[in-house]
Amino acid sequence: MVSLDIALQSKFYANSPDKVLGPLSFRVSPGEFVALVGPSGTGKTTLLNMIAALETSAPGEIKFNGAPLTDKPDCKIGYIFQQPRLMPWLTVAENLRLVKPVANESEIEAILIKVGLGGKSALYPKHLSGGMQRRVSIARAFLTEPDLLLLDEPFVSLDAPNADNLRSLLSELWVEQKSTVIFVTHDLNEAIQLADRILFLSAAPGTVILDTPVDIARPRLPDDNRLQRWKSDLLSDYAGLLEGVLSAPVLKSVSRR
Amino acid sequence: MIVPALKQLLHSALPLAILFLVWQCAAMLMDSSNFPSLLQVFASLRSHLVDGDMLHHLLVTLLRVLLSFTIAMLLGVLIGIMMGAFPRLNSAGDSILIIALNVPALVTIMLCYVWFGLVEAAAIAAVAINKIPTVVVMVREGARVVDQDLLDVARVFQVSPPRYFFKVYLPQLYPFIMASARSGLSLIWKIVLVVELLGRSDGVGFQLGTYFQFFDISSILAYTLAFAAIILVIEGLIMRPLDRFIARGGYHGQS
């Protein structure tokens, strides 16, 4: 497990005068599941990529366990992208072994059984449905037992039952491994169901406009009334929150207990 | 199982059979020693194989083809990857590449023979130098359109450099490398013949030059057929299995 400190002043894309992110600061405790919610174009994916060292950041803006991020982070990072991003020329087992070469057959099969893909290790990605490919990408991320797990809208464009199954699966694997998780989503229901805490981002340039813990006891099921009540209370208190606009003054670290 | 295989064979062989038939009919109609019939060519082929030293010359040429092909592919892929991956290197080397692409093969061969002498190394170098630029161009295009998303996966999961290169990066270039290998093989063996014609004392090219001086068209066509058959065997035994390997998982790259 790893703690994460973010203190971004600003983030611009190369050759663009428009600020994408910042100022932005928050802390994620070890083992915490934090959801980032905000409208499109607020730099959520950019932020994840910066944390994963796929995008540049200024020295000291991102810290793992208090130490500044380097090109090659000391901790193990897992990333579940919007698209599964499996290597088409590798079988399921080879895709998994790519990120963990020492994984033996039984370890591969065990994680595949966990994600409901037992016996599929020899198949190529093209032989799998979209939902199954996402399961493989989840298996790939959890196989490495990451200290930090980044998820970028991994269930977008999936049908509702499939997405529900995968959310439950993600929740189970997180409980088992207790990685620190940063989860980007547009879907507030999803965020409430999964996260310990939700950070709402403003419209671009993205900055935290509300930081609130989700104080609902687990397990949380999708049709749980408590989730719906929590959501409607939140949205009645903060109209425009999902559009990245707060009518009330900026509030941070609000407990809604 | 057998019926589809027979159908496939028939499908491939039929155009060839028609070509041979047209050839035979045309030769019989013209009745000229400058246009031997297919039967005369096969008779010549048989006599060169059984009584002559055709096998020796075929093997010498094949060896030159394989050596120059290997060198051209290795260097071409390496330079192509570097030019595709590093834009500064690409802009610096682009004009040289365009010149290299447009220098006539004959000039390269002559210069190699003049500078290095009429030796085997000069012959191989001349052929490789002719082929390298076309490999570079194809592989460079592949390296330019490598899927960054897949590379990001490898970077995030801290995949080791050798695995990154061989399991993530290089497979994306396979279709481009295959295309350049395919076109390369046919181009190289033609250049090898010129090299042999101009400065070697053995090989198919040397033999063709000799038979040309005697207007022995049957022998020229017999040698051509024999080497084309070897290229067909290489295609069937090496290129097609490689194609199937690359197409595993349904990946054909972006070409």
Automatic annotation (TrEMBL), chain A:
UniProt GO molecular function: ATP binding; ATP hydrolysis activity
Transmembrane segments: none
Keywords for this protein: ATP-binding, Nucleotide-binding, Transport
Keyword Nucleotide-binding belongs to the record: yes
Residue ranges constituting the ABC transporter domain according to the UniProt record: 6-228
PROSITE patterns assigned to the protein according to its UniProt record, in alphabetical order: ABC_TRANSPORTER_1, ABC_TRANSPORTER_2
Family: Belongs to the ABC transporter superfamily.
Record-linked PANTHER family: ALIPHATIC SULFONATES IMPORT ATP-BINDING PROTEIN SSUB 2, TAURINE IMPORT ATP-BINDING PROTEIN-RELATED
Protein name: NitT/TauT family transport system ATP-binding protein
UniProtKB/TrEMBL annotation, chain B:
Recorded superkingdom: Bacteria
Chief location of this protein within or outside the cell: membrane
Membrane-spanning ranges: 12-30, 62-84, 96-116, 212-238
Keywords: Cell membrane, Membrane, Transmembrane, Transmembrane helix, Transport
GO BP annotations listed: transmembrane transport
UniProt keyword Membrane present: yes
Membrane topology: Multi-pass membrane protein
Keyword Iron: no
Domain ABC transmembrane type-1 intervals: 58-238
Localization annotation: Cell membrane
Family listed: Belongs to the binding-protein-dependent transport system permease family.
Protein name as catalogued: NitT/TauT family transport system permease protein
